[in-house]
């Protein structure tokens, strides 16, 4: 598997006054796709709640290349670009591409796992998180941290 891919449907509320997709909508689509992928890999919100951990982001950045409009057919491609061997720290990238494969935007997030009871980074990384991220497709320029 090269990446997790999903077609995106834009809503009227995703547009800004210039009639293209507003900047914050990209972040919302990225966050939703990450949670859907983790869920698909068995790392559901219920599991995270039962085991008292969840993802925490340190950085979220988007580089915008081409504007997106309401009628555009767009696919989001998601993969890991960096990760520690124990999956305690990771980076995930989301590429927004038109159906002709034109790159329109790239979101990069850097994160880790937080113990929701102690309110600090989880140590050790919960095994189910290690398993899920080990299955996650990796970018061509993947870096092991």
From TrEMBL:
One Pfam match: 4HBT_2
CDD domains on file: 4HBT
Hydrolase among keywords: yes
GO molecular function: hydrolase activity
InterPro entries: 4-hydroxybenzoyl-CoA_TE, HotDog_dom_sf
EC number from the UniProt entry: 3.1.2.-
Keywords, sorted A to Z: Hydrolase
Signal sequence, renumbered to the chain: none
Glycosyltransferase is among the record's keywords: no
Protein name: Acyl-CoA thioesterase
């Amino acid at each position: 598997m090269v990446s997790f891919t999903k077609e995106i449907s834009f809503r009227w509320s995703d547009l800004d006054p210039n009639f293209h997709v507003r900047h914050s909508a990209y972040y919302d689509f990225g966050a939703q796709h990450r949670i859907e992928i983790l869920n698909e890999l068995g790392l559901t919100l219920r599991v995270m709640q039962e085991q008292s951990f969840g993802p925490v982001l340190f950085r979220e950045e988007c580089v915008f290349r081409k504007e997106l409009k309401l009628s555009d057919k767009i696919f989001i491609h998601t993969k890991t670009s960096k990760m520690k061997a124990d999956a305690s720290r990771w980076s995930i990238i989301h590429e927004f591409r038109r159906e002709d494969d034109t790159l329109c935007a790239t979101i990069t997030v850097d994160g880790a796992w937080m113990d929701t009871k102690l309110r600090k980074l989880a140590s050790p990384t919960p095994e189910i998180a290690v398993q899920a991220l080990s299955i996650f497709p990796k970018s061509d320029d993947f870096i092991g941290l």
